[in-house]
Design a protein that fits this description.
Number of strands: 22
Main location: cytoplasm
GO molecular function: dihydrolipoyl dehydrogenase (NADH) activity; flavin adenine dinucleotide binding
Number of helices: 13
EC number: 1.8.1.4
Enzyme class: oxidoreductase
Structural class: alpha/beta
Shape: globular
Helix content: 25-40%
Radius of gyration: 24 Å
CATH class of the largest domain: Alpha Beta
Protein name: Dihydrolipoyl dehydrogenase
Largest sheet: 7 strands, mixed
């Protein structure tokens, strides 16, 4: 006898658990299924983000930044540190604790909102008169039926052909978070978000890091001015970035990995490293879902096909997050999860893809929302630009972190904000002001006229807005 629910959510990553909670808030009887398991065999909801992505990487980034500050920057503050040591096992253990706190927090939220959780892999069995039958395979084995199904199964790391992940020598983001000792040399294939963040962690801790990127430009999706500034900063820190390379082969040995590649000038090169992180993107994860059992349509990439409202080709089956089109970002998945729950309830859930912020949590951080200058040029839209460097910001000087700038783009006629781009300290937090402003169709003049606290890093945003009109006050 199957248990019946109004809404069954398959996957408890950011999109799934948020969809389940919002649906429960709206009065539905909700079940959420998730297969992630912790080291003790218990449930670990939160998906890639919580378990091997956003949360653990930020924990290690914070720890490694503390270590680098103690070793290289405290002296400038008059703080002497002698006998500095590094306990990688303890650092990784702290990361694991942070992850478990988030896992437990989601389980608590399920209980608080009366969402019934099932630990296992959810798969389609068949369509029924009242919706769909879903089987749970795993520790929480069960047979469920639901009127509405929300698929939020996330994504998996893409492997390099001929170089499968073993998570010992050839690492995905998962293995990169579990390295037990600082490698003397580390290679990173791909200079995207994951590659740069993980490369930064181990570079700070003492590894010699070399990044191999196939594209001829660095961070091609980022505003060109910001990308160039970031590249200079990373190079000064010791991160070696090679652009325009072609990987020819990856050979794993007992002592490490050898990467044969052709550089941008056409010369054959060889890179020998103790460990290799492969960060060349992610693919939608539908393994075990059995979409063929009900005729759920996938595209050529393996993503579930959805319309602008996250509806699939099947009635009352929805999909959100990394398993569908659009940017693979946790907060995008969350917004889609909320929107779908509200649409199921007959409301008008909405996600504006033009206002989704992007963040790379390196040091300096990189964050942006809206269009880049190169996109505006390509579209032929007339615009004005203004920027302000953190080196002219009093709070940044006091922090001892003056790398980077805030750059603002606005319509040449209406002055409406079209894009805000930041490289510098806590860019991930500063970008929120831009998101709010753009959501309300603000102009650069609006930001320029708003009083910002002094001294604060946010003053750089105000000054960039002033710069759009050529009237900065502090630079």
């Amino acid at each position: 006898m199957s248990q019946h629910f109004d809404v069954i959510v398959i996957g408890a990553g950011p999109g799934g658990y948020i969809a389940a909670i919002r649906a429960a808030q709206l009065g539905f009887k909700v079940a959420c299924i998730d297969a992630w398991t912790n080291a003790q065999g218990g449930p670990a909801p939160g998906g890639t983000c919580t378990n091997v992505g956003c949360i653990p990487s930020k924990a290690l980034l914070q720890s490694s930044e503390h270590y680098e500050h103690a070793g290289k920057h405290f002296a400038a503050h008059g703080i002497g540190v002698s006998g500095l040591t590094l306990d990688v096992a303890k650092m990784v253990g702290r990361k694991d604790t942070v992850v478990k706190q988030n896992n437990d927090g989601i389980l608590y939220l399920f209980k608080k909102n009366k969402v019934e959780f099932f630990h296992g892999t959810g798969r389609f069995v068949k369509a029924t008169e009242k919706g769909y039958e879903i089987a749970v395979d795993g520790p929480g084995a069960a047979t469920l039926s639901g009127e509405h199904i929300v698929v939020a199964t996330g994504s998996s790391a893409r492997a390099l052909p001929g170089a499968d992940f073993d998570e010992e020598r050839i690492l995905s983001n998962d293995g990169a978070l579990r390295i037990g000792a600082v490698p003397a040399t580390l290679g990173v294939i791909g200079s995207g978000v994951i590659g740069l963040e993980m490369g930064s962690v181990w570079r700070r801790l003492g590894a010699k890091v070399t990044v191999l990127e196939g594209l001829p430009t660095f961070l091609g999706a980022v505003d060109e001015t910001i990308a160039k500034e970031a590249n200079k900063a990373f190079t000064r820190q010791g991160l070696k970035i090679n652009l325009g390379v072609k990987i020819n082969s990856v050979t794993k040995g007992e002592a490490g990995v050898t990467v044969a590649y052709t550089d941008a000038k056409g010369a054959e090169q060889s890179l020998e490293v103790e460990r290799l992180i492969v960060s060349i993107g992610r693919v939608p994860h539908t393994a075990g879902l059995a979409p063929e059992a009900v005729g759920l349509k996938l595209d050529e990439r393996g993503a579930i096909v959805v319309d602008e409202e996250c509806k699939t080709n099947l009635p009352k089956v929805w999909a959100v997050g990394d398993v569908v089109r659009g940017p693979m970002l946790a907060h995008k998945a969350e917004e889609e999860g909320v929107a779908v729950a509200e649409r199921i309830a007959g409301q008008h859930g909405h996600v504006d893809f033009n206002l989704i912020p992007w963040v790379i949590y390196t040091s300096p951080e990189i964050a942006w929302v809206g269009q880049t200058e190169q996109q505006l040029k390509a579209s032929g839209r007339a615009y004005k630009a203004g920027s302000f460097p953190f080196i002219a910001n009093g709070r940044a000087r006091a922090l001892g972190d003056t790398t980077g700038m805030v750059k603002m783009l606005a319509d040449a006629t209406t002055d409406e904000l079209l894009g805000v781009h930041i490289v510098g300290p806590v860019a991930s937090e500063l970008i929120a002001e831009a998101c709010v402003a753009m959501a309300f169709k603000a102009s650069s003049e609006d930001i320029a006229r708003i009083c910002h606290a002094h001294p604060s890093l946010s003053e750089a945003t105000k000054e960039a807005a002033l710069a759009v009109d050529g009237r900065t006050l502090n630079f």
